[in-house]
């Protein structure tokens, strides 16, 4: 029996069978193969490009292509390709290879007593395994390259591996010729600088400084910042494709990335803990008091509840901030007392005290009233004054009344029997009138077949339009309304008017088909097939579309008011100073429209317009007046209006015929102003040597401006004489510039004018939260979810800047963080978000 073939593992030994180069390995099987045609073609002309010089910085056999599916990029390791599986004998990988060894140069060493029993370390592919002659139990590693170049004669390249091979592995990975080797499956971090220096390319100091100096900390910070800002899964860094992408750009960056999502989660928690003190510090430096809005949501199915808490304030630079500060999980009942408990805890965490706490802007839910009352009891303030109502939420209630009525006083009938009849008529109209029929048709388009049919009807209708029609080829979908949002009905009606020809064609198709089916069923003596009631009607007539148009025009002012309340980024829009002027505008519009319908005799003849719209207008007007009267509960609304540099005289003129309104609100304003004007004056930012007074100048000033120099005059009375500013002036910046002239009044103005008109920022928070939970984070722990969202918003607001090298470590260990934040809980339940609303 012939002896087993021994395959050399050492780098210098020749290969027995050609397998291509190390960077372009050729698969070998038991079948014969033909030479590649490309081998006969002449080589391409050689050019000294930068790329070629970079390739020449490593010998061909020192560059290994990544295996298929590998996460690593092709860099510059010098580990050889896998052993030849065809020629390798059974368990040959456990045998020691001494090809090329000169024992005469290793007089202190001998072969080990036995070969490897289980697994041989990868380092012995690149060196000899020997034992000490006087103590064969002590095993050493002799580097092939160092032995060949006689460096072992002076003690270099010899390592004791009796206990561990780490020292020999570090030697092989050194960045010097013949080395740069790592274990299979690991890729050494090769840099452009090393490649250029190996190729002896001259590098200036400036270029070297640009190439080198890679900051692992800054890259990790930027990577997590990108991950969170763009809502990528935390496991993104684990994906092979992403790691290959980063490795191609910079191997150092790929090596710096975490390989486990749990490590990324721990970093996010540390980043959250590092950013929170910076948020607390900015809140402590705010020029205004800190106003709070909060709202609650639960995931679908009621599995988890959250409370989004947002702070509104003017920072030390005079910039208006709407900053989410917390996203605690709600457990138990969403009662007012429970909400107060959670909010008080968050206020304490962010050092918001009775002295710095401002107003609460919340929706009209009754549990919010209870919550503010409980907080007021703890922090000692007037809950009625500090509890403000979300403007768009109030407009929504008015819009619901305008659409669906439901108020006995709106029928203009005194008899009980007549009231019952009116209520029955209006209920029937809502269900089967033009609006009800339109909504039934739109909601019926909910399957692919119905969408295709509607699109076909749309194209048919477009063919009948003039050739120059703007929307001739625009295919649109109907907008489905949301029951709790009146503005969705406005959008639905507006889109429906635009698609009226297509909706008529679509409805008529169903009406005609239903009529044919009914005729056939009657002829066969069978029951008629089930169908929506609108399919057995006349569809929508021209008069019906006129009713839809009327409702659009009536609802349009509400749409404008909502935009005014929510437009936080446009000068004063979205601020509380808009509330009184906007309510006045809305009431005027509703009253004018109702006055128009009061002139119509609705039962004069069969073609007379029905009275559903004036009935709903009266219901909406009653609701609007109800909430307008509630503005008197807090002096903040009036104060914001008269402290606005453009609206300062608005109430005097709008309420000129209501002197009792003015008297009451002025009295409340003076009580509020008294809390501010008694405050000690702040220290001036700089001091200037006092100028020697001149009696003549004082006398002249006394005649020109009697109030000049009168430091005892009330700041508000002085400011009232200031001219009204032009449209578009930012009131926050206006008062920020007047802090030296009106120190106490400006503080009050900045506090009052920074109150938002709505709590819609909370809705934005949970809109983003819904994105965060998709698609692979539905079961993420609430604490980590809150940290992710907070980091996202705080970084967007500019906290942390780009300087993260001093980022403090979390006080918790990784194990403690895992237990506290449940970082390991990932995999998904279907856990989308939905809102809860108790009012």
From TrEMBL:
HAT C-terminal dimerisation domain residues: 715-794
Region: Disordered, residue numbers: 1-62
Comp. bias intervals (Low complexity): 30-39
One matching Pfam family: Dimer_Tnp_hAT
SUPFAM superfamilies, A to Z: Ribonuclease H-like
GO CC annotation terms, alphabetical: nucleus
GO molecular-function terms, A-Z: protein dimerization activity; zinc ion binding
Source organism, top-level taxon: Eukaryota
InterPro entries: HATC_C_dom (IPR008906), RNaseH-like_sf (IPR012337), ZnF_BED_domain_contain (IPR052035)
Keywords linked to the UniProt accession: Metal-binding, Nucleus, Zinc, Zinc-finger
Keyword Glycoprotein appears in the UniProt entry: no
Compartments, as annotated in UniProt: Nucleus
Keyword field contains Ribosomal protein: no
Protein's recorded name: Dimer-Tnp-hAT dimerization containing protein
Organism name: Pyrenophora tritici-repentis
